[in-house]
Amino acid sequence: MENLVQLVRNAGVVGAGGAGFPTYKKIDGKAEIVIANGAECEPLLCKDQMLMQHYAGEVLAGMRHIMTHMGAEKGIVAIKAKNRAAIEALAAHLPEQISIFEMADVYPAGDEYEVVYHSTGRRIPAGGLPLEIGVVVQNIETLLNVRRAAMGMPVTHSIMTVHGHVKHPQTAWFPIGMSYGDVLEAAGGATINDFALIAGGAMMGTVVTDLSTPVTRLSGGFIVMPTDARLTVRKSQTEQAYKRFGKSACDQCSLCTEMCPRYLLGYPIQPHLVMRSLLTTGEMSETLTFWAQACCECNICTLWACPEDLDPRNVCVTTKRDLRKHDKWLPPDQLQNLTKDVHPLKEYRSVPTKRLTRRLGLGKFNADAPLRTDGVEAKSVSIPLQQHIGTPAIPVVQTGDVVQVGDVLAKADEASLSVPVHASISGTVQAVNTAILLGKN
Q1: Which of 359, 394, 426 corresponds to the end of one domain?
Q2: Mean predicted confidence (pLDDT) in 341-350
Q3: Does one domain contain both 108 and 251?
Q4: 180-204: pLDDT as tens digits
Q5: Residue 319 burial by CB count (10 A; 0-12/13-18/19+): exposed, middle or buried?
Q6: 11-70 per-position pLDDT tens digit
Q7: Do 161 and 202 touch, CB atoms closer than 8 A?
Q8: CA 171 to chain centre
Q9: Are residues 278 and 352 in the same domain?
Q10: Are β-strands 380-384 and 408-411 bridged in parallel, bridged antiparallel, or unpaired?
């Protein structure tokens, strides 16, 4: 077989469960343990569960490819104990060197730092990477894509869960570049008139009102919600608003910090101190802002802990942005020096997913979003050239070209961190810009 790194790069595989870091770079090294992150803790989203139930053999084959390439002797599939159907499907294909680690039904069990700590007992260094402790973590969809890359198949579709106020909640494979409006139509359409989409999950996702937004390799699903729902409104606050409210109303109760999963793991994150920085200036404010850097943006502080309905999560996010902008980002060694032991009460402060779902106003929805087995087709797609961390792909087609599914539309920038982009439908190139527009003939 051709080198796995090159096969994975040629196929355009990126991390499907995070920011889209190119997988070829992540597996270009040695590791002792490969972890398949199937914890999936965003309420109502279940694409990873569906993949493990219906594609267990391919997922584990992708995992074995990476283990062999990286020299790892041990593999771990981290999955919530409640997902019995997925566990049984995996068990039927499980090789000797891979085991299943069952996790509690809490949020954010799927955070990479949580998965590594609970399944191995090791802690990722603050500001560091799992590879520094001999571990590599991959999302379930990414592992499936690695298996297909090894078979010469590029990434052309993304699996998504469509839920909330929608006629037919479902999980399905959608062509990359298909509009969110067409995805919603494929699920039967919204059952309410005035709605918005919360893309990426109720906790860490963002509000999307533009239905022309395209599916990308990072898309995991969206929830259809009323525009006036408490969750939608809170997620739509402007930076000016949440900073003003935080400055005027935060009473420094510190519950945001005491419930923070990363703080409980011992990392140097204290959202209440970052909130305090809104009230200060000069050197004191600068010192307080450093306590935002280890934030994983899980939103427990904002949507679960804060009794005042403030937004410490987004204050941390914008503070991190400003630290980078002003070149005040602390190096990993300084962060690591601030790291403490795991909090003795950590296991008692986990947030049960069922209670969180009710708190978010999602308790009325049936959690099921079954896998759709028939193919979803798109008449046209708009495929972005930038669907990953790194340099955008470079177009190799022009208007009028006829392409087939899987053809390369844009090649990787070989000198940079980059992956190619492939056609998700067969048709004619209608436009080439920051995205490539294809229409069926």
Answers
A1: 359
A2: 96
A3: no
A4: 999 999 999 999 999 999 999 999 9
A5: buried
A6: 999 999 878 999 999 999 999 999 999 999 999 999 999 999 999 999 999 999 999 999
A7: no
A8: 16
A9: yes
A10: unpaired
Residue 412's alpha-carbon distances to 12, 22, 421, 422, 439, in angstroms, are 9, 11, 8, 11, 23
**274 and 410 inside one domain:** no
Q: What is the CATH number of the domain that holds 223?
A: 3.10.20.600
Contacts for 92 with CB less than 8 Å, ≥ 6 apart: 56
Residue 250 resides in a domain: yes
Cα→Cα distances 37→101, 177, 257, 369, Å: 10, 26, 26, 20
- What pLDDT sits at residue 2? 66
Is 234 within a domain?
Answer: no
Say whether both 137 and 15 belong to one domain: yes
Place of tokens 């000198």: 415
pLDDT for residue 281: 87
* Entry pTM: 0.96
Q: Residue 146's pLDDT is what?
A: 98
CA dihedral sign of residues 250, 251, 257, 258? negative
Rounded CA-CA distance 53/296 in Å is 29
Residue 282 lies in domain: 239-359
- For residue 108, is the peptide bond before it cis, meaning its omega torsion is within 30 degrees of 0? yes
8 contacts: CB under 8 Å, gap ≥ 6: 23, 24, 27, 146, 149, 150
**Are 31 and 166 in the same domain?**
no
Domain total for the chain? Answer: 4
Do 292 and 346 lie in one domain? The reply is yes
